[in-house]
Design goal:
Strand order of the largest sheet: 3-2-1-4-5-6-7
Mean pLDDT: 90
CATH class of the largest domain: Alpha Beta
Enzyme class: transferase
Strand content: 15-25%
Domain Glycosyl transferase family: 229-376
Shape: globular
CATH topology of the largest domain: Rossmann fold
CATH superfamily of the largest domain: Glycogen Phosphorylase B
Order of helices and strands: EHEHEHHEHEHHEHEEHEHEHEHEHEHHH
Low-confidence stretches: none
Distance between the termini: 25 Å
Structural class: alpha/beta
Helix content: 40-55%
Protein name: Alpha-D-kanosaminyltransferase
Number of domains: 2
Oligomer: single chain
EC number: 2.4.1.301
Keywords: Glycosyltransferase, Transferase
Largest sheet: 7 strands, parallel
Radius of gyration: 22 Å
Length: 427
């Protein structure tokens, strides 16, 4: 089958940012290897696209929604650094405006059959309906949605962290399922890719035949190319944490769990990242008498992050509400085994062959299990190298962006000739 002509909608897509914009860019750019792609993105990403070598008008189109998006973005800053659910709800307005403009610009060419497929890559959240999906269904052009991810419930016992994150709207988040436009979007889509098994469970059973599991995060081998050598010497176990310093990431639990081992020199701990909890974490280290045993690296560029991670034996990442877990894949790509909480994204990425997962539970149980896992690795570090090699192999086989592009190419082939069941992309 010839390469399909695909109009890729990626409102958030930027190679110079992190999180969702980087995922959006990485997906859209990778798809250029398996399809004739034209990317539609928001105007704020235009300069970054040009610096990345793409040609406006040929490779991409920028859509200006700033008259709606900019004031709402300024207003959302009043919510503080957290409040993710509320900010997502507010961003639904400029996202809907973006889709209307996309249809104004490309509706005629879509209707005329100039595009084989329309694929909305971002937003990733499953809560936002798509106007373009419904229009594509009317003119018979396949519409691919996703990968969608988000909405992982807060685990029991962490209401304090939930409130500190400003997640007051998360208590009623499920109300979005009652919106009629949501059902119309899912019905109109030819394929619905989901980035987590939890999100798959949120898709109504009537759409299960076209729902396809594919974690949204991937690895750019140019960004993460170093090779870690876990347990290569007889020194203390070297653990690192990478992430924003916010309550749900669990850096405070890691420090408390590691404290006895840090005090006796059996463990070193490096924390990479910045955020509102950083002063509190530094104070905790001081109050526990751990000055000089924990290194706070602050925010680092990707190149520096991989250098620090590659010098360690283990990624310790006890986040209790992680949708995707990109840092887990980054560690695995370097050959660094991850130690995570078995919940949501990280729990789906980590298997015993290449990492360690402790059960989700109350805070005290997570701290205890983290400490037990670290103590066991200090006693028996021999398997770290083997698990690290298996982790690297897993990423190379499944989670590079080139691999993801080939996986999505299977979805494209299926929606163009939907014979038999939807493809299974990852086990």
């Amino acid at each position: 089958m010839n390469k399909p002509r695909v109009l890729v909608m990626a409102e958030a897509a930027n190679p110079e940012l992190v999180s969702v914009p980087l995922v959006g860019w990485s997906f859209a750019n990778a798809l250029r290897s398996v399809a004739d792609v034209h990317i539609v993105t928001q105007v704020r990403n235009r300069d970054a696209f040009l610096r990345a070598g793409l040609k406006e008008g040929t490779d991409f189109t920028s859509v200006d929604t700033e008259k709606v998006a900019a004031p709402l973005w300024r207003f959302s800053k009043l919510f503080g650094p957290g409040a993710w659910t509320a900010k997502q709800a507010l961003s639904a307005i400029p996202d809907a405006y973006f889709e209307r403009i996309v249809w104004q610009r490309f509706g005629a060419s879509i209707t005329a059959g100039e595009w084989d497929i329309v694929h909305r890559v971002t937003p990733l959240t499953p809560t936002k309906p798509s106007y373009v999906a419904r229009q594509c269904a009317k003119v018979g052009v396949p519409f691919v949605l996703g990968p969608l991810n988000g909405g992982v419930p807060w685990p029991k016992g962490f209401d304090k962290e939930r409130r500190r994150e400003g997640e007051w709207l998360s208590y009623v988040r499920s109300a979005y399922k009652l919106l009629p436009m949501r059902g119309a979007t899912l019905t109109a889509a030819s394929a619905i890719m989901v980035g987590s098994k939890f999100t798959m469970g949120e898709i109504p059973q009537v759409h299960s035949a076209k729902t396809i599991y594919l974690p949204e995060n991937g690895i750019d081998v140019a960004r993460f190319h170093l090779q870690a050598a876990p347990a290569a010497d007889d020194g203390p176990l070297r653990a690192c944490f990478v992430g924003r310093m916010v309550p749900y990431k669990g850096a405070d639990m890691l420090i408390e769990a590691a404290a006895p081992l840090l005090k006796v020199g059996k463990l070193t701990l490096t924390l990479i990242g910045d955020g509102p909890m950083l002063p509190e974490l530094k104070q905790s280290v001081a109050s526990l008498g751990l000055d000089g045993t924990v290194e706070f690296s602050g925010w680092l560029e990707h190149a520096q992050v991989q250098q620090v991670m590659a010098s360690c034996d283990l990624l310790a990442f006890p986040s209790i509400r992680e949708f995707g877990g990109g840092v887990v894949l980054e560690a695995m790509a370097l050959g660094l085994p991850p130690l995570v909480v078995d919940y949501a994204g990280p729990g789906e990425l980590v298997q015993p062959e290449w990492g360690y997962a402790i059960p989700i539970g109350p805070r005290a149980d997570i701290i205890r299990d983290l400490r037990d896992a670290l103590e066991q690795l200090i006693i028996e570090p021999q398997e770290l190298l083997q698990k690290g090699m298996a982790a690297r192999a897993r990423v190379e086989e499944t989670f590079t962006w080139s691999q993801k592009a080939m996986q999505i190419a299977q979805v494209y082939d299926w929606v163009r000739a939907p014979v038999g069941p939807a493809p299974t992309l990852i086990d």
